[in-house]
Write a structure and sequence with these properties.
5-stranded parallel sheet; alpha/beta; 17 strands; 323 residues; 27% strand
């Protein structure tokens, strides 16, 4: 069987593109390991349009329910895509482009005339000694999931953006003291969250700090960092380290297939969510769109689905992505 469209991922981008593909009656295969994307771990999402408060788990459930409501036209496979390759077989009998794409998973290969990449990004690692050794034993990457485990323990949060600041707030009810290590000389998160942190006496902010090593025996016991202004190495006693330094796009699967920028993000023409490869579209955190937000990912994914539909109907030329 040849699908009209294969969508990879089921966060806000993957779910939105699946809904719009279904409404255009494109025979669609959605391949994903899970629904929800990175926000599934969030305890309280306050900026999803139409919801004043919603948990990441509940939002993911809404995504899944909406997509599954189109079961007559959208097929779902809960597994990981391993490879994408071009097929030169003739698709012209079905109309649309003369070539298509094969996506390989653990269970087999699936063909489609177009693909939407919506597989998002993953948490960025520190890549310092001790991080891997103590992962799950004091080094964590999800404050919403793990903050309650550190009740009564001193914690360090690494990262001065929104993710880092929100992790500090998540720790307020549990940790007696929280170090916030920022590599630069200022916080970069939302002003309201900065104000909340600055007012809390539990928090000690350490600027110009570069993490060098996580230390301990069976569990994390301390963290070593370098003062970037003086060059001095310093050590603080902590029972937990929360790494909140952003994410990296899950673009390894298309490396060498579509054009990526210097950070590994898929370059797109934002008008039509198109990549450098005809028939492959992209939306969400995997792309070079500068604003990594759920609402923007969903909107861009709608464009991707509509552009894929136009492409398959031969109504739209597919120019290369902007460089």
């Amino acid at each position: 069987m040849i699908y009209d469209l294969i969508i990879l991922g089921a966060g806000p981008a993957g779910a939105a593109s699946a809904v719009y593909a279904a409404r255009k009656r494109l025979k669609t295969l959605l391949i994903t390991e899970s629904f929800g994307g990175q926000s599934v771990v969030s305890d309280d999402i306050q900026n999803w349009i139409g919801e004043t408060h919603i948990t990441g788990f509940d939002l993911a459930k809404k995504f899944e329910d909406h997509v599954r409501s189109f079961g007559d036209i959208v097929e779902i496979k809960l597994e990981r895509a391993l490879e994408i390759k071009k097929t030169e077989e003739n698709f012209s009998a079905q109309g649309g482009p003369a070539s298509g794409w094969k996506v390989k998973t653990d269970s087999g290969e699936f063909e489609a005339r177009a693909v939407i990449l919506a597989i998002g990004a993953s948490r960025r690692k520190l890549n310092v000694p001790g991080e891997q050794k103590f992962e799950g034993r004091g080094v964590v990457y999800c404050s919403t999931c793990d903050a309650p485990l550190f009740e009564g323990k001193i914690a360090a949060v690494i990262g001065g953006g929104n993710a880092g600041l929100e992790a500090v707030v998540d720790l307020f009810p549990y940790s007696p003291k929280i170090y916030l290590l920022i590599r630069g000389d200022a916080m970069k998160g939302d002003p309201a969250t900065q104000e909340e942190i600055n007012k809390n006496t539990k928090v000690e902010i350490i600027y110009n700090a570069e993490t060098k090593e996580v230390l301990g025996d069976k569990f994390v016991e301390s963290l070593k960092y370098q003062d970037l202004k003086t060059g001095e190495l310093k050590e603080i006693k902590v029972g937990g380290v929360f790494v909140e330094i952003g994410s990296v796009p899950n673009s390894e699967i298309v490396k060498g297939l579509v054009e990526l920028d210097q950070w590994g993000q898929v370059k797109i023409d934002s008008k039509h969510a198109i990549t450098s490869q005809p028939g492959i579209f992209a939306a969400g955190d995997i792309t070079d769109d500068p604003y990594k937000q759920n609402n923007i990912s969903a909107g861009d994914a709608v464009k991707a689905a509509l552009a894929a539909y136009a492409y398959l109907q031969k109504r739209q030329k597919h120019p290369p992505a902007a460089s």
